[in-house]
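TL;DR need C-alpha cells for one chain.
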Amino acid sequence: MILEKRLTAVLDAYREQDVLAKGTKINDGRIFVPTSLQEAMTLLTIGAKSGFYPNRGYFLDAGSGDGRMVALLSCLGYKAIGVEFDLELAVYSQGKLEQLKRQGAITADAKIAKGDFTDAGTYQKMGVDFQDIRNIFHGINLVSLRGLVEKIKNESPSGTTLTLYGPFGMFPEFEGLAKVSGPHRLGYVADVAYYQKCRVMNGRRLETAAQQVTAVR
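>> reply
TL;DR here they are.
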C-alpha cells in the first residue's frame, strides 16, 4: 500500500474519535483529549524536515492514549511503540492498531503496552530496552513529565530527542536536555517544542549538535 493510502487509512481510523475530542471520558471520570491529527502531522513534518529525527530507532509515545501517534509514526516508517497507563485506552488503542495492521496501513511491529512509562517492566513486556528508544513524544502532563525527563537523563543515550506537545506556555527548561527549538504555534490551543539530551564530558555539558528546528508550513 502506497504512503498516501496508508495515511488516509490512519486518519480515517481516528476521525470519529476526533469528533469526541473535547469530551471523551475514560473510566475514572477524567477527560481524554487526543492529539489533533492535523497538528500531529505538522509537528512530525517540522521535526523530520529539520533533521531532528535522524535515528530510526524506536519512537515512543509516552502516554499514547487512543494510539493515534503510534499508528501515524508506524505509517511514516518509524519503529513505533506506545505506553498508556489507563486500561480502557490501552485496550482500545491495541484494537485500533490490529485493525490498521490488517489493512496494511502500519507495520506489524507497532505496539502499545499498558503500564507506567517510567517503569522498566513496561518495556520488558514489549521486548524493548529503553536505551534503544531514540525519539520520544509526550503530550504534556505535568504530573508525569518530570519522571519521564529524569528517566531520559538517567538512562537514554546522548542525542535522544523529546518532542513535547501541549498548551501555550507549558514548556520548561530541563537540566541535561537542550531545548533545540520552540515552542512553535501549531493551532489555536497547542504548541510544540523540541528537546535533545546533551552530551556530558568531564562533568561539563556539551550542547547537542542537533540542527536548529524551524517551523515548516
